[in-house]
Design a protein that fits this description.
This protein is mainly α. The chain contains 13 helices and no strands.
Length: about 300
């Protein structure tokens, strides 16, 4: 791979990670001005579905899903985006910390690794175990920065881990579908079906208080467009292109940096402060995830 090609791939994956890091910040912006959770998620998925459908059709990458695979697709969507976004967004609302939200979500590769060992009998080494083990104290340093907090804070952490376990379930199911369908097909359909999943919740809980006039104010519509177009659209496309060249394991190492992006962005925007314990926790978690992913790649090769 030439230097120019290497630089292009590095820029692509770095841009994707920065955008995903800011997704927690943009979501938190909306929550701070009391935009309802289902409104945020529903319109993010609607816009993302439109964007991904246009891109997939333009690139001629959208495949037809076989009838026997539809139940697996429905299960996939149940895990993510449905349960994942419920856990992530309600959890972020409760903890009111983009950094804490990102640090918990960053453990997804760890739990996916454990699921792979349990379900697919993937190999594990002592270095894998070490990487998994050191993430826990890192998480605790961030979670316990200001003590255990109130009940809402604890419930928020539980909801964030609902997102983690949902993403783990997603990784198990998507491995089955990925053997037959490309990434564009899977993600486009999961957003379209996810839109159907979230529609009843939006109509039941948020529609009565929905105001089009308020929704289209810049403080609301701009972050939602950013979440849909940049985080669910552009970042995904850049990520897929990076996987083609770097491979899944090497690309996932970059995703471990998302909490650092969220923490720095939230600090610069004045959403939350920065402390020694928080910085130490972020470094420990990122290190643990990288160690686990790196050794997994070595075993696989």
């Amino acid at each position: 791979m030439g230097n120019k090609h290497s630089l292009a791939v590095f820029i692509s994956i770095t841009a994707a990670i920065i955008l995903w890091g800011f997704s927690f910040i943009w979501t938190n912006m909306l929550l701070l001005i009391d935009v309802p959770v289902y409104t945020i998620v529903f319109f993010r998925i609607v816009l993302a579905s439109i964007i991904l459908t246009v891109v997939s059709l333009s690139l001629k990458r959208l495949q037809k899903i076989a009838g026997k695979d539809i139940p697996w697709l429905l299960l996939l969507v149940l895990f993510e985006p449905f349960l994942y976004f419920i856990g992530e967004t309600f959890g972020l609302k409760a903890v009111n910390s983009p950094t804490l939200g990102a640090i918990v979500i960053a453990t997804i590769p760890i739990f996916s690794l454990i699921a792979g060992i349990w379900i697919y009998k993937e190999k594990i080494s002592m270095l894998n175990i070490f990487g998994i083990a050191i993430t826990l104290p890192g998480i605790l340093l961030v979670v316990l920065e200001n003590g255990w907090g109130n009940g809402a804070h604890i419930n928020g952490i539980i909801l964030l881990f609902l997102a983690v376990f949902s993403a783990t379930g997603y990784s198990v199911v998507v491995k089955r579908l990925a053997a037959k369908y490309n990434s564009y097909t899977i993600v486009t359909y999961q957003n379209i079906v996810g839109m159907v999943y979230f529609l009843p919740l939006f109509l039941s809980y948020d529609m009565s208080s929905f105001s089009a006039e308020r929704f289209f104010r810049a403080e609301i519509i701009v972050p939602i467009i950013a979440l849909a177009s940049l985080c669910s659209g552009l970042a995904f496309i850049l990520f897929v292109n990076s996987i083609k060249i770097l491979g899944v394991a090497r690309t996932n190492i970059f995703t471990s940096l998302i909490p650092a992006v969220s923490a720095y962005g939230a600090y610069m925007l004045g959403q939350e402060g920065m402390s020694v314990s928080k910085i130490a926790g972020i470094i420990i978690v990122i290190t643990g995830v990288i160690i686990a992913q790196k050794e997994k790649r070595a075993i696989s090769s």
